[in-house]
């Protein structure tokens, strides 16, 4: 077999593998989203009217938050990892400013989200939502840890 054929086959296999991993991650993320929706729906006790207005706002917020946390943060971390050994102080300062800007965008997004919810659900449910999100994340983390311990046993 020619070297070029082997390289092409190798590239093809790597592409399929990374696509499969990406699909698994998307599937897992959708599964977690579904669990979270079920949890929040039950615990928030939204009326039909509240739910109809709440979920589009919440979904848009979560999508934008995910983008900011993962896409932009990963880009910044990748940039750091690629050049950390040869990064000048000026470059580090620029990267730090970009990281600060990303954090500020997240803060402003959360602030806008809370403001948008004020006309949809009462303030007590907005506060409860924040608590429930933390509860859900703790619950998810506990499940993840338990799965890891079960695999070791």
Strand content: under 5%
What is the element string, with H for helices and E for strands?
Answer: HHHH
Helix-strand category: mainly alpha
Count of discrete alpha- or pi-helical segments spanning 4 or more residues: 4
The low-confidence runs, each spanning 5 or more residues with pLDDT under 50, are none
Shape: globular
Helix fraction, binned, reads over 70%
What kind of sheet is the major sheet? none
Arithmetic mean pLDDT: 83
Structure characterization notes:
By secondary structure, the protein is mainly alpha-helical. The chain is 90% helix and 0% strand. The protein contains four helices and no strands. It has helices at residues 3-44, 48-83, 89-118, 123-152. Helix 1 (3-44) packs across helix 4 (123-152) and helix 2 packs antiparallel against helix 3. The longest helix is centred in the N-terminal third of the chain and has 42 residues, at 3-44. The chain starts with a helix and ends with a helix.
